[in-house]
Amino acid sequence: MGILKTIIEDLSQPKSQDPAYRSCVDLIFNYPGVWAVINHRFIHALWVKKWHKLARILAGISNFLTRVDLHPAAVVGRRVFIDHATGVVIGETAVIGDDCLIYQGVTLGGVSLDKGKRHPTLEDGVVVGAGAKILGNITIGKGSKIGANSVVVKDVPPNSTAVGIPAKCVSGNTRPLEHNKLPDITKELLIYLIKRVENLESCGDSKIVLDKKYQEYIKSIKE
């Protein structure tokens, strides 16, 4: 596919994915993430042709203008939309598939000083909530969702939803990602522990109810 057609797809993303979009004026002045991706198309082409110094210079200029730190070597698929954009960091060996949605403050970072693959891979259709950190050479499976401010350090299976620090997969995959409907696994654990203490102190007959609650908690998470 030609770069012009790819850029036209990039420019169409705010209208199709953001209800706040109103006009082309918005597109020009209020969607730095779109321009960061478009800039990257050209910068990455220079990187592939071994014009590394020029690519790094242009990436620095793009970072200054768009507030997206996107390494020239990173691979970005089609129709990738970085919404709001501020504070997004995408490392050198990161790979982003088609139709991914990334919100502000997201980091696709490394945890190793090795020169090889050390940044995440997002497969097609992944949604990453605001402030999430995905670290290391891990894979986020196709169609998965990462909750806001989660820290992901392990692979996430396709069509899953991961939340928490460190992130765990929870049952169900909300489409689109609706944070108000995600289970609070910390709250569930605390409720279970409180009821367990009450049960131990009272020596009552609430064991069956408590065991049911425990099984619901276990079901809500996957190791």
UniProtKB/TrEMBL annotation:
A GO term for molecular function: serine O-acetyltransferase activity
Reaction catalysed by this enzyme: L-serine + acetyl-CoA = O-acetyl-L-serine + CoA
First-tier enzyme category under EC: transferase
Keywords, in A-Z order: Acyltransferase, Amino-acid biosynthesis, Repeat, Transferase
Gene Ontology CC: cytoplasm
E.C. code: 2.3.1.30
Residue ranges of the TM segments: none
Superkingdom field: Bacteria
A Pfam family annotated for this UniProt entry: Hexapep
InterPro entries in UniProt: Hexapep (IPR001451), Hexapep_transf_CS (IPR018357), LbH_SAT (IPR045304), Ser_AcTrfase_N_sf (IPR042122), Ser_O-AcTrfase (IPR005881), Serine_acetyltransferase (IPR053376), Trimer_LpxA-like_sf (IPR011004)
GO terms classed as biological process: cysteine biosynthetic process from serine
Family according to the record: Belongs to the transferase hexapeptide repeat family.
Entry protein name: serine O-acetyltransferase
Native source species: Campylobacter porcelli
The gene coding this protein: cysE
